[in-house]
Amino acid sequence: MITFVLMVNRQGQTRLSRYYQPVELSRRAALEADVVRCCLSRKKDQCSFVEYKDFKLIYRQYAALYIVVGVTDSENELSVYELVHNFVEVLDKYFSRVSELDIMFNLDRVHILLDEMIQNGHIVETNKSRVLAPLTALDKMADS
Amino acid sequence: MALKIVKGSIDRMFDKNLQDLVRGIRNHKEDEAKYISTCIDEIKQELKQDNIAVKANAVCKLTYLQMLGYDVSWAAFNIVEVMSSSKFTYKRIGYLAASQCFHESTDVIMLTTNQIRKDLSSPNQYDTGVALTGLSCFVTPDLARDLANDIMTLMSHTKPYIRKKAVLIMYKVFLKYPESLRPAFPRLKEKLEDPDPGVQSAAVNVICELARRNPKNYLSLAPLFFKLMTSSTNNWVLIKIIKLFGALTPLEPRLGKKLIEPLTNLIHRKIHIFSSHKMLCSQSHLIVSLSRIAVLISLSSGMPNHSASIQVMKYLGLLAMSKILKTHPKSVQSHKDLILQCLDDKDESIRLRALDLLYGMVSKKNLMEIVKKLMLHVDKAEGTTYRDELLTKIIDICSQSNYQYITNFEWYISILVELTRLEGTRHGHLIASQMLDVAIRVRAIRVFAVAQMATLLDNAHLLTGNMQRMGICEVLYAAAWICGEFSEHLENPMQTLEAMLRPKVATLPGHIQAVYVQNAAKLFATVLKNQEGNTDSTAAQETSQLMIDRLPLFVQSANLEVQERASCILQLVKYIQKLQQKDVEVAEEVCALFAGELNPVAPKAQKKVPVPEGLDLDAWINEPPSESESEDEQPKAIFAKEEPKHSRPRHTEVDEKELARRREARKQEQANNPFYIKASPSSQKAYQEAPGVEHIPVVQIDLSVPLKVPGLPMSDQYVKLEEERRQKERADKKKKEKKKRKEKRSGRGRKHDSGPESEEDITPAHMVDIVTEEMPENALPSDDDDKDPNDPHKVYDIQGNLQDGSQVVVSVIFENKCDSFLKSMEFNVLDSLNSKLQRPEGSGPHDGLTVPFQLPPGVSNEARFVFTVQSIVMPQKLKGTLTFIVKDSSTHEKLDFKLHFTCTSYLITTPCYSDAFAKLLESGDLKCSSVRLEGVIMPFHHLLARICFHHHFSVVERIDSCASMYSRSIQGHHVCLLVKTSGQTVSIDAKCDEPTLLGNVLDEIKQTFSQC
């Protein structure tokens, strides 16, 4: 299963974090820093999987932003790898060319999208239009 | 009131919202912490206001701060307030904050139950949706119990959006409140066929996760999933389904066969799915997919530009291979070159995966080559972690299954020595223990090992050069011990002795110094012995003087053990010197100090020490003072004269029942005490001695490799030598075979495989006897030890957790005597209480076993069946039937048969040495029985041979017309026979610890002789 989803930038600042297994707040910062260090140190031509302690990190880089997903051993690496891209495509569609600032300023919306796609640490929805449906409905409601 | 609202909205205009906060943080890069603390103060003010919009805005900002690592648990109650807002825009902010900050121990969660229930039943689907999503993050057992029913009704909501969310949250509910699974399951199953694909995939998800915890209960759903697999086009759902099948196939082998086709189709279409399906049991499709993976990896490594996605494929391919390796090592081994290539990859993740694969791939043939390659990588590797990983892998690979793949230990020692030259490794200890292990257990290597260790000691300054390399100086521990213990093999003991007493040694860690001191003494003894052999007595005296000069350095050591040993030995040497000055020959006696060889002790030795006769571990050594005793014994009695009554043994007063009760209590206590060494589970007392030293078969050492290698060894040369040796051997073998063929012309035409050499063809360079590990006297013959040391993987181990000694393998020869083709044979036996045919997991107790072959006319073939037998003391007959189809008539035919399990068939020919045999008879545990056979007309040795052959005995000793024989049952009963003959009468006196078994065996022996 997926244990956490992180979005961090090249400076190691967290832009989004979502934990599917309880991790103490005090330990989160250390974990995030460690994870980021792991991913940032890798070159572009290296594969997207890193074994980290007792779980695996799957990451993808989009411009200056890294999306890092921690998974347990039983999770299929490739499905998560593709999910990350799917997630970015969804964001792209919603924000029309998503940028780091979009994510920072609309954190709650990004969370809604993420929650549509991952729940309990499992991938639950990958259809773009279905993922976006609740959020667009919500925006309409707020406008009216 | 109105004024208040107006005031509130005006305030709001000046409030920061989330965007402002983010912007603010970005603008205050230098004093971020200070800025945030002022923000938190503001938020606290905002939370105090009545306006829900202000509160929601504050909570929203808190969620952002929480992400940055600030503790916001103090606002938990405010979050609940925002959650309960009637306006959806605020409500979702509340739920989002809750899902990020709440966890099981957050106490305000209790307050939310009713609010959540209200939201769940809200007419607005997004209210319900946000409640469900939020709930999945912070559901507690209490919430799960209270809300299970509400969620269950939502599972059949009209809106697919709600249905999907409800199905998903049920999984979390099941985990927190398992009782809800039973009532909810039928509805969950329904959802697998929901018209909406989203709901369907949600149901698949939940069931897949549940099934992996307990696959048995979900077997009945297999057909449904099968249908889904062939119809679904969603890759993520497919992966889940295949994973589920991965959990189910071990329980239902037929499923595996059925899956081959759709899976191969899938794999051809979408290779990536493969990595998820683990261990589906059909071989053919595995091979197919394996070859595809191999193509993939080779493709990706052939590409000039290592783009990330290709690397991803490579990684996944290797991962999949490691999974296949567990079940089908052979098929992976053929891709060895590819995997070795991956070791050169730039990417550490890929290299680590490839390393893992290597472990399962080595064989005698390629070990040297692979290790050579790894050594190259060790030299090149940057970063200590990867290098350390390589080092441990090399040692793991070489030492696996008791050094099974090592044919040349000299090579191994030189590899170890080369590894010591690694900079900054942490694994010095590991290398040291390998050196010790090899030197102790492989006798033939000692000469070589000692030479190498002496060089190591000589060059110790290289190892201890800087502090960074401290980890590696553990090796010196091993080196010093080996040189001391096997000092008789040393080329130049004097030089080594000097090396060990250098002042520099004092900088080593204490425990190593202690070994140095002790082994210097051993060396000293050897040197003395050599020097006294010569006529020149001054040399010996000089040696003593050297010791006396150097040892005081160690006497001053801060380490207690070093100090103690050094001062002991110093005194000893001083005494020796005194004697030497009087021209007394001392070497002999000094050597006696260290006489005797230390043998390796088997790890299970302690467990195998039998309880000596007459020792009842349950009996009290001293009776504990009972309550009553303390009452009638007055304190003054201590000084008074002991009354005769007190000297009476007390335990006679305790009745049997009381004793039994106490014993029970004690057993209980022992069972609960983790430090108590429990008795061996077998109640059998064993007397057969583990083979003593004189019985160990020491194989003649045939050294075809020159032993002396000047200086430090280079492992490479061994690879070359080994190659040459093998070639020579192969040539020899061919010659021999030619000869053989000539001689055996008349025999059946034998096919010799002169192609690539097989594993068996490779003989070890020097037949090294890996010295048997020492077992205590009277140890139990080990039958529960490692089952098959040759197994590269545990997967081959016999399945099931049967008790040892309760399995009987029956091999049945089927011969087709008619002239039609027979097929679909099924072998079935009616199980009795005592013996059962072992059937594959998942089949019923009356199912037959398919015979794995067909029979053309006139052909015979053998099949083996395994039975479990509880008690072996009685012979038994099992009724069985064989059903088969005659091809021409295609009718089912039946053949009844009986299987006779004689008691003899439970006996295993076990050699027994006469001393152990005598001990066994003396023990008095065995029941006696005897039988007389009349009118036996055959020579005595024929008679013995007959008993040996038919009844699996072995002759222990034979004197004239009298012989003692021994055998052991599969459950460890000892059977001893004393056979005497006089004229035509043969009398057999027998002893066994199981009288019924003995009686039956004797009956069977009698029958054998009555037939002739």
Automatic annotation (TrEMBL), chain A:
Lineage top rank: taxon: Eukaryota
Alphabetical list of CDD domains matching this protein: AP4_sigma
Domain AP complex mu/sigma subunit positions: 1-141
Record's protein name: AP complex subunit sigma
InterPro entries given in the database record: AP_complex_ssu, AP_mu_sigma_su, Longin-like_dom_sf
Protein family according to the UniProt entry: Belongs to the adaptor complexes small subunit family.
Single GO BP term: intracellular protein transport
Subunit structure: Adaptor protein complex 4 (AP-4) is a heterotetramer composed of two large adaptins (epsilon-type subunit AP4E1 and beta-type subunit AP4B1), a medium adaptin (mu-type subunit AP4M1) and a small adaptin (sigma-type AP4S1).
Pfam families: Clat_adaptor_s (PF01217)
Keywords in alphabetical order: Membrane, Protein transport, Transport
Membrane-protein topology: Peripheral membrane protein
Gene: ap4s1
Keyword set includes Metal-binding: no
Record GO cellular component, one term: endomembrane system
Lineage: Eukaryota, Metazoa, Chordata, Craniata, Vertebrata
Functional summary from the UniProt entry: Component of the adaptor protein complex 4 (AP-4). Adaptor protein complexes are vesicle coat components involved both in vesicle formation and cargo selection. They control the vesicular transport of proteins in different trafficking pathways. AP-4 forms a non clathrin-associated coat on vesicles departing the trans-Golgi network (TGN) and may be involved in the targeting of proteins from the trans-Golgi network (TGN) to the endosomal-lysosomal system.
Keyword Transcription: no
Main location: membrane
Location in the cell: Endomembrane system
UniProtKB/TrEMBL annotation, chain B:
Annotated family: Belongs to the adaptor complexes large subunit family.
Bias (Basic and acidic residues): 633-669, 720-734
GO biological process entries: anterograde synaptic vesicle transport; Golgi to vacuole transport; neurotransmitter receptor transport, postsynaptic endosome to lysosome; protein targeting to vacuole; synaptic vesicle budding from endosome; synaptic vesicle membrane organization
Protein name: AP-3 complex subunit delta
Gene3D superfamilies documented for this protein: Leucine-rich Repeat Variant, Longin domain
Species, as recorded: Dicentrarchus labrax
Record-level GO cellular component terms: AP-3 adaptor complex; axon cytoplasm; endosome membrane; Golgi membrane; presynaptic endosome; terminal bouton
UniProt keywords, alphabetically: Acetylation, Coiled coil, Cytoplasm, Golgi apparatus, Membrane, Phosphoprotein, Protein transport, Repeat, Transport
Residues of the AP-3 complex subunit delta domain: 654-803
Location within or outside the cell: Cytoplasm; Golgi apparatus membrane
Topology relative to the membrane: Peripheral membrane protein
Residue span of region Disordered: 617-683, 720-765, 777-798
Organism classification: Eukaryota, Metazoa, Chordata, Craniata, Vertebrata
